[in-house]
Each structure stands twice: as C-alpha cells, then as structure tokens.
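The pair is quoted verbatim as follows:
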Amino acid sequence: MRKPRAFASVWDAIADTPDEAANLRARAELMQQVTAIIKANGWKQTEAAAHCGVTQPRMNDLLRGRVSRFSLDALVTIATALGRRVRIELDAA
C-alpha cells in the first residue's frame, strides 16, 4: 500500500502546478474577505449584488465559494465596487 501524499493546503492538492495553487489561494482569500464585508453589512444576496455590480446568481456563486467561477480580475472589480482597495503582498515561499 502506498503512503498518502501530504500537501501544504487543499489548493496544492487539487492544482496541477504551484502557480495554479497560488492563484486559487488568492481567489479564495479575496472571496472570503468580500463575503465577510457582505455579512458585516447584513445584505441579502440581491442587495449585495446591487452593491457589487453583479447579478444575484453571480453573487450566489461568490457566497457559496465557487472559486472556479471567478478570476482575480473579477474579484478585484467586485471589491472595488464595495469601496475597497486591493493590495497584493508577496511572502517568501
């Protein structure tokens, strides 16, 4: 029997390459922050969608964490619509 492989994160486990894992991680973190802003304001999906400039079904995808349906660019646009500035920070690997 083979020993199970260990991964640093779920993103490393499901991604084919380290750069794809980094992109997935960044998108997931941004989605979590946008979701927290929406919850802090107590907005329903339709209200949040209006504030973010997207449709309610698109907002549903975001709030359900469907990372594969969002690019970093789209998430930056949504965060900007909420009056936030997105910063990218690099850490040593």
Residues 52 and 83 are 9 Å apart (CA to CA). Residues 42-87 form one domain. The mean pLDDT is 89.
